[in-house]
Amino acid sequence: MEPQAARCVSLGGRFARPGWLAVVACAVALLLLGPAGVATAAADRPGPGGKTTRGVVISNGDEYPYRLYTPKSYSPRHAAPLVVAVHGCQTTAKQEQAITRYDRLAERNGFVVLSPEVDEAGRTQPGPLRQCWTFLDPNSWKRGSGDSAAIADMTRAIMAKRSIARGRVYLAGISAGGLMASVEAAAYPDLYAAVAVMSSSAYADWTCFTSGVGIPVETSAQLAFEEMGSRARVVPTFVLGGDADPAFPWSCTEKALEQGLRTDNLVLGGSQEGPISLEPAKIRRGQKPGGHSYTVRIYRDPAGCRVGESWRIHGMGHFWSGGTTDPAYDGYTDVKGPSAAKATWTFFERYRKSAAAMPCAEARPRGDRRARGGSA
Question: How many Cβ atoms from other residues are within 10 Å of residue 31's Cβ?
Answer without folding.
Answer: 22
